[in-house]
Amino acid sequence: MNQLPDPWSFAFSSPTRIVFGDGTLSRASAAIPFDGPLLIVTGKSSALRSGHLDRLLAALHPRKTAVFSGISPNPRVHEVLLAAEIGRQINASAVIGLGGGSALDAAKATAAALAGANLSQLLLTDSPAPATTLPIIAIPTTAGTGSETSQAAILTDESSALKQGLRGPALTPHTAIVDPELTISLPDNIAAETGFDVFTHALESWVSSRASALTAFYSEFAIRTVLSQLPLLLNDRANPAPRRAMSLASLLMGWNLANASTCLPHRLQYPVGQRTDSSHPGGLAALYPAWMRRAAPLAPTPFSCIASLLGASSHLDAPDAVASWMHSIGMARHLHQFGLSSTDIPALTAAVRGNLATDPCDHSPDALAAIYSESL
Ligand SMILES: [Fe+2]
Hints:
By secondary structure, this protein is an alpha/beta fold. It contains 15 helices and eight strands. The chain has a six-stranded parallel beta sheet with strand order 1-8-5-4-2-3, with helices on both faces. The protein has a two-stranded antiparallel sheet with strand order 6-7. 53% of the residues are buried. The structure holds fe (ii) ion. Fe (ii) ion (FE2) is lined by residues 197, 200-201, 266, 280.
């Protein structure tokens, strides 16, 4: 019988320098210790519409900058290669990601591409991004993905039809400028989705076989924060306290992603997102009830914590309590809402990649297919 990992024996890495606080975007220049030209990678519209990009450019003036604003919600390799081309033209010294997880992930991949990485090849292997990857500055405009402190970038490669993670210590941002004021302009549905993503990172990194005493401590804080603060944030976006708390929980969970990883829902969501272009938290929400029913009996500590916070009687009742809470914040989803049906399950199951062994649940192909089937 395998020895269970000891949560009190661990290594933990959190190399990102955090610059946190309302208004930090306006002081971005002082927080970026690189002299040369800066490439800004952002999404197609929201950073422009919200004025965040203009504020960043004003903060960086008169430094030499170039902007690539062509990143999709599920970023593509070809978009990253276009961004890298602009980075080469200006001889960028660092890459700034401004936006949600997609923009931050695309900035990381751009920094790797500028170091000569072949992204399509890297996505097919477990090889880490090159150590010569350019420094990355993460400026999140949502509170959710944890990409601002994690060492992963999720990309879709159209040539291989794969949605997969690019990983490695070199992808960990050098600096994260976390300005909770930037999340004021988020639409309600995005605030709910990204907040739910924080919850999933907290729960899965706690259930994970790679959880340590330290990541479990952060998970418990993040779960308490999301359950108590996200409803307040959705109720009143002008209230600074829940905004700050959610931004803090998001970056803590980036550390947990890097140090304890996630479980089956994150592995199962990638094929859903790749096939349907549905959002990452939306896919997770559809998969969560079926996964939680399997995980709760095997992970009594995290699910007991959730049960007590939601007023359920035991860890076995926590999945139903979480499902009700998801409904209350508008996060109840089913895979059929993304156009999927039972005929898609074999292809979805075959497309699942990554380390499944962090999850205590059965992860045989039949078990994965059963989770997809129950999530329809
Ligand atoms: Fe996630």
